[in-house]
Amino acid sequence: MTGVRTKRAALLAGMGAATTAIWTGSPLFAVWVGSRVQDGTAPSMTALLLVLGTLAITSYALIKLLAVLGAAHDRLSRRHRVRRQAPWLRSLRGDRAKDISEQDVGAPERVLVGCVVVAVLAFEVWFFFLSGSSLPNA
Predict the structure, then answer these.
(1) What is the pTM of this model?
(2) Which of 35, 59, 77, 83 is the most exposed place for a label (fewest CB within 10 A)?
(3) Residues 51, 52, 58: CA angle, nearest 5 degrees
């Protein structure tokens, strides 16, 4: 039992790290890759395209990693994910799917929301208490 809990906790930690890396590590890595190609101070189109391409590829890979970790967590917690159908693809005959409020929220969604809340709170603390005033001293 504790082995399963440890694995689930490790998967949640991995999801948290992947979520944080999507917003921080991926852009920083893309800018670093672009800086290796850049000559001089004026931005070149090659460096800009390389930054965009690197950002797209690393973000996509991290999102796929997050999906794999979420699926592994669901298997360990014995949850069965129900694939939701888009509202515009549903039948209009009266057979309705389960209400959205009845559907369970999975671990990846909880981790993503938690990371966003922590990031917003950290930004607010920095902005209001640590950044100082941008207004000139008169």
Answers:
(1) 0.71
(2) 83
(3) 85
Instruction: Give the list of residues 6+ apart from residue 81 with CB closer than 8 angstroms, or none.
Output: 71, 74, 106
Which of 64, 53, 52, 63 lies closest to 23, judged by CA? 63
Task: In whole angstroms, give the CA distance from residue 29 to residue 84.
Answer: 34
Write the CA distances from 100 to 82, 86, 97, integer angstroms: 11, 12, 9
pLDDT digits (tens, 9 = 90+) for 68-115: 998 888 888 877 666 666 777 776 665 555 555 555 677 788 888 898
Tokens 């672009």, located at residue: 34
Torsional sign, CA 83, 68, 103, 1: positive
Residue 31 near residue 51, CB atoms below 8 Å: yes
Residues 64, 103: Cα–Cα separation, whole Å: 23
CA–CA distance from 17 to each of 11, 12, 54, 96, 132 (Å)?
A: 10, 9, 19, 38, 30
